[in-house]
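Attaching the record inline, Q. Sequence:
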Amino acid sequence: MLHPRFSAALLAVLSAFIFHVAQAAEDPPKLKAISPNTVALKVGKLTMKDVPLIPRKAFFGNPEKARPRLSHDGKLLAYVAPLDGVLNVFVGPADKPDTAKPVTHDKHRGVTNYSWAYTSQHIVYTQDKNGDEDNHVYSINLSSGEIRDLTPIEKIAAQIEGVSEKFPEEILVGINDRDGREYHDIYKINIVSGEKKLLQLNPGLAGFMADDDYNVRFAMNFQPDASTVLLTPDKTAKEGWKLFQKIEAVDSMTTSPAGFDKTGNILYMMDSRGRNTAALKSLNLKTGEEKLVAENAKADIGGVLAHPTEKTIQAVSYTYTRTEWQILDEAIRPDLDFLKTVADGEIQITGRTLDDKRWTVAFLMDNGPIRFYIYDREPKKKATFLFTSNRELEKLPLVKMHPVVIKSRDGLDMVCYLTLPKWADSDEDGVPNEALPLVLNVHGGPWSRDDWGYDPEHQLLANRGYAVLAVNYRGSTGFGKNFINAANKEWAGKMHDDLVDAVNWAVEKKIAKKDKVAIYGGSYGGYATLVGLTVTPDVFACGVDIVGPSSLVTLLNNPPPYWMPFMPVMKLRVGDWKSEEGIKFLESRSPLNMVDKIKKPLLIGQGANDPRVKKAEADQIAKAMTEKKIPVTYVLFHDEGHGFARPENRFAFYAVTEAFLAQNLGGRYQPIGDAFTGADFAIPDGEEGVPGVKEALKTYTPPKKKEPAKQD
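Structure, as predicted:
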């Protein structure tokens, strides 16, 4: 059993701050909403007037259809699509997808995280309430339409831990309903009857790994020094486990088990030990023989294509600037060669039937929607177009995303992505005709990365007249362990220097106007925004902080319970929140303690139910700024968590955001209009600080409060 989930479990909290999405003492100038019919800024063959203002709903609404997946027998196709404006799962015959009907009927936040059970007659999905991440696991019986809550327990964060074709009616689920809810026990749950059986009690470990026979073969835990240990079952050992391998802290973020071969005797590992980038290796558990399967000098192995039943690894992917595939099994070379002729874009194999005759394939673009196909391998290779994620995007003047590599001041290569307005780069060479206002878009994580491809924020901001730069600063994943380890205890230090270096590069290349640069981001990117406006208050003209922590001390003192096994890693890589010296260091890297340095406008977006970066993080910096009479606009969404899932809330926030940026950078924007309709939010501070907000609030009616519909 190949276990991407086990690798993901090792890194689950590493990505805890990811968002899938500070201010001047003087009043900023007032700015009217700019229409494409009233602007004619000539910068080349095209003018701004030639490019229509694209409605923000085109970027932040629901996809038309997405995530198509074939049942394991290849007869049915499921996908996600809106039902009365809310995303739900639809199912129909694979060869007649237009006849699909909804099998979920959520009316609030939607259902998107689903998969097929091996029965090919059941769908399994996870869902929380209003972004609180108290996830339950549900199964849908397609014959009866019944939806069953497989984990009917309050205040848990259930997670699917394993599936196997050998047990089509059973799945492995992690449930943290004991003690302080820090640890997940592993249960075998029947998706038809709901019957639950304890498979593995957790004595205090971070994660487990089972094989195709549902035998728990390995466990993992973090040590006080931030190293990790891999353990194997041993009935004679204390708590039933013995040491298999220790992975030192320097390799702990780039080394982990990835799964088994069909026999269960070969363990595959992503492994950076003795090297920089993570290679794919195989380890014979009987003989101890280790073999190198695949490697890349610049990037970690990031994806694996394996046969659905034989479990042989057929290809791997890695991403430096763009994703590339390395073929290991010549049997699938004709398939990948054929798929290259079907459509442009990066190829993703998103599913394969058990007999491996049918695949679902996605083609990712940077200036258009994802294109989805069913690929039949036999008797003759044939790709049948299903749909795009959003046909409306095909009609819009979208722009290209350009990979660039920027040197940090101490010599690191940072893979970045630049997006430019269409009229400023009519030949699409990534070089604007003249310097532009710039939005530095900082990714969350920080142990994550930016990639090439369609990005709705990039497209919106470029259409409004900004250059957009996304930076893989040190600590970003995929570029080897040295790049990650260079970020240890560098929050608001060298990690921020990297962002400033990228801005300076853009200014030197005449891409950005020095006095018209905004810093913008979610989660860690929100923290980076607050750092930008406090540590380097003269670099940025304004900032947008989305669910970002304002104090590292309060952040680390208030983690969700299920973060606790991971906290030794936070101590090594962020700082020690328990010692006097460590607290002093963290306070020196906390924007909350530097509020009086803020000179430029700040916009904050926060989810009230965020379990990771809690509402208090936004409250405390907004309060501190208000008390010091520093302008801040704070938008609080009542039914959101770590990011904004509901389209109505996204429309509201991006309406405020683009008006805010226009006021401070000089770009154009779509007036707020009716963007607040259906959103559930309040603006505790600064409604007068953004053009059109106060007026729009006069006609805004908050939705009636109601509990999310019970699944049945």
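The domain at 5-59+394-697 is CATH 3.40.50.1820 (Rossmann fold). The chain has a mean pLDDT of 92.

More tomorrow.
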